[in-house]
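The following record pairs a protein chain with its ligand, acetamide.
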Amino acid sequence: MQRRISLIPQPQQLTAADGDLDLSTLDAIAADPELHPLAWLLSDLLNRGTGLRLAVTGPADGPVLRLRLDGDRPADLTTAAEAYRLDVTPGGVDLAAAHPAGIARGLATLRQLLPPDALREAPAAAPVVPLVSIRDEPRLRWRGVMLDVVRHFQPKDFVLKMIDRAWMHRLNVVHLHLTDDQGWRFEVPSRPKLAEIASWRAETKVGHARDESEGYDGTPHGGFFSVSDLREIASYARERHILIVPEVNLPGHARAVLAAYPELGAGQDQPVSPTFGVFEEVLEPTPEALDFALEAYTAIAEFFEGPFVHIGGDEVPMTQWEQSPVARELMEREGMEDVRGVQAWFTKAFCDRLTAMGKRVIGWDEILDGGAPAEAAVHVWRNEAYVKKAVAAGHQVVASPEPYAYYDHYQSDGEDEPLRIHGLVPVERVAGWDPVPQGVDESMILGVQCQLWSEYLPNPRDVEYSAFPRLSVLAEVGWTNVDVREANPVMDRLGDHLERLHAMGIWYRPLEGPAPWQRGGTGSRKRFAWEHRGHPAE
Ligand code: ACM
């Protein structure tokens, strides 16, 4: 019988042999020069969790942990770029790939082959891995997680931790939702009021936004990433071959921007929002508002060298434009019959600017409603019907439909679940998801991503509870082919994987339900069931 090796995601091909390799018997990490940054990262991680210190050398024979590039280099962000071959034999470790991103993914697998305690912050396990041969390549090109650092600001060190956890799960995208009605979370030196005014709110709603029995906390909340923070986040992600996709959400969700620069809107005087929901404020379609948006996109796009910039574009109410003489004049000038053309006008201008910078635009599925340039990728959030609609309109898609990918939703029906926005996304449903709907050309599906909206996730522990273990299962959904998933049900490996999450100090939700200290209790963190109070389910 083959020895049981429990990894998440399940590699496409895995053959185990009897026996282990003790990495302390090896001479060094022998790596091609281009791979030295990854080799030192591995050396540091092994040292932290096991106490072993392997030096990094150039290519060498003998008993080594070998990292090498071979074959023609594939383009970035292709499945071939992340393919790797990993062989652990009594004589050493050989990790080969055609692209450094493939080496980064293979190292994530190697970390999981170590005992779970090797993932701790100080030596707690022996540096021993099973003998194994793995041939692996992801099914989909984009496997991501979105952090909402707006509704509740998430500190920079937590963003770095989540990049590391994405890496450990062989994800390759961390999407940062950086702007919304409740705050603006990055410094734009040419627009100082974004940091001074738009990044702060006076207080925050206690309990659920729809729970009228609770008031506001009277405590200012805010923060933003400085230019130096952004530089650090970009470097940290680059070292692990994780793509940062920054999102600047315009022309809607604009209340914080308009609190700082009211002249860009239609005369509103609302403060940065202390509560949650969809608000009417939008940018006016003026040259000044467009200049502002293009300046913000340019500022963030220059920071992150990856190809994608997310323009948001969800939940843009048309009410202000319907009443605006400026919008009416634009519609007449451009021959628009529908007011949704105003959003399309913004979308096209954002695409033109970002394309000229060599970037690619992605936006929420509402950018389809008024029409978007075909080269824009569509990030589907509402449901799978929009996957089909976007593909039919010629767009590539990242799939995050709410029923499978919204991890701000409840994980069970239990009354003791802590306050979340609404909805229900059990981990078992994620495990059964095929993100490519029947009849859709798989090459049009860039990939999958889970969403951690933070209206009701005030601190990193709440984000971790919501993310794990659903994120672990989503990583497999994006990585592993359906036939391999069917032959190796992920739920059979999840218990083993929780030992890793535990060793990493992650505040995950146990499969049987929240631990006592994770429950909602009886106060303002108690589950709020909108649909149980006579309202339709959402
Ligand atoms: C979204 O959830 N409004 C993208």
